[in-house]
Amino acid sequence: MFGRLPYRVQIPLGLSLAVLIAAILVTGITARVTAQNARQEVLSLLDRAVVLLIAQVRPMVVADDTWRVFALLRDTAELVPGAATGQARLAILDAEGRVFAASDPAQLETGRALLGQPWREQPTPVPSDITGRQRLDQGDGSVVMVDPIRSEDGQTLGFVLTEVDAAVFAPDWSSLAQTALLAIALAVALLVPVGWWVGQRMTRPVERLVAVIERIGREDPSQLRGAVPTTQDPELSRIGDAVNQLMAELERRKLAEERALSAERLAAVGRMTAAVAHEINNPLAGLLTATQTLRLHGRSDDIRTRTIDLLDRGLQQIRTTVAALLPQARMDDRPLEPGDLEDIVTLVRVSSGKQPVEIRFGVEVDSALRVPSAPLRQVMLNLLLNAMKAAADQGIVSARLAADETRVTFCVTNNGPPLSAEKFRTTLAAESGRDPRGFGLWVCQELANHLGGRFELDATQTDQTRLVFQVPNREAPEATT
Hints:
Elements: H1 7-62, H2 66-76, E1 88-94, E2 99-102, E3 134-137, E4 143-150, E5 156-164, H3 166-169, H4 173-215, H5 221-224, H6 234-297, H7 301-323, H8 339-352, E6 357-365, H9 373-391, E7 395-403, E8 407-414, H10 421-428, H11 439-450, E9 454-457, E10 465-472
Parallel strand pairs: 6-7
Antiparallel strand pairs: 1-2, 1-5, 3-4, 4-5, 7-8, 8-10, 9-10
Helix pairs in contact: 1-2, 1-4, 4-6, 6-7, 6-8, 7-9, 8-9, 9-11
């Protein structure tokens, strides 16, 4: 859940949690140290009480005055922490380690042997081994101390037994808890607002960087550079430099894309110009030859009529091709007629000049033709001219126009070197549009796509090349504006 919070909230909240955890840890350590100090204070107070007791009890032990020892223990016990509540006991032992007098006779009865015997399930040293203070720490935290009572000449007169229960050393946790809670509350009240302010100040440059990054792609990079914040922090400076570098790279890429788009537009214009020149030059050579025929044989009515009709249809085809370049112009085109194939064959024969190529053609139309004549005449002219070039001298070119209710098919076959499928695909590739020699087939493919048909190589013919152009037998679709 913490990871789902925004970065500008995570840092202040993390600093606040760090302050709170640090305050709790410091308070816990302080409470532990306080408890240890309280135990040392109790032990130090016991040490002073025992020293005072030894100094006063020495003559009483020598005089064997039991009642005065009882009275002294009763008075001294008031100085020992926990004695008033029965949690601490004092006893005077004789030189043999037996109880001489005790502050609590019920637990330490007079005459009872203690030294050298188990006490509280732990062994105690024998009197002869005690040369100084013997401290016995019990497992439950209680303490038993044995101090020798010596005469002025160094003889052991007896011993002082001090027993303090573990509850005496326990600190006042209630008081410590109140102090700790007060310290934590003060630390949180003072440090959390400071941590929140510091965190917000740290994240402010990051927020500005994020705002700039969000605007990349929607605004001009040159205007965004001034919005990148500057800071003395090395890591944030690296991020800012990376953002500036990214925007500079975007500017360079934008310029490169604009240059590429301009070059592509120029290339498209060049391809279109070459295509138009190609499509106009194809019938133009035949039309020029027809005018020469008209000039030489114009006296014959039949030749003059046929030549003029041929010129009219050829010029109409050129007109339609040029008008296709103008989106705002809509030229009415007549439907294709079976006789258009004969016109195209005549133009091709005239254009071929003296090239010895035999052209055979046939028409099988079983239904009314509803396709426009201009694009189909253009396809037939391109395919026949390409087939004649491929057939070379003494070659044979066959053309066939077929139609039924659903489709119109035009096939051209030549017996020249077969065209491979790979070469056919390469010729139709987009790159081939830059080569004027490949425009004939490329234009056929574009027209097939425009009319919703197909243009392909017949792969079943292995000894000759057969190209098939097929479109639906319907009117051409309207161009979208």
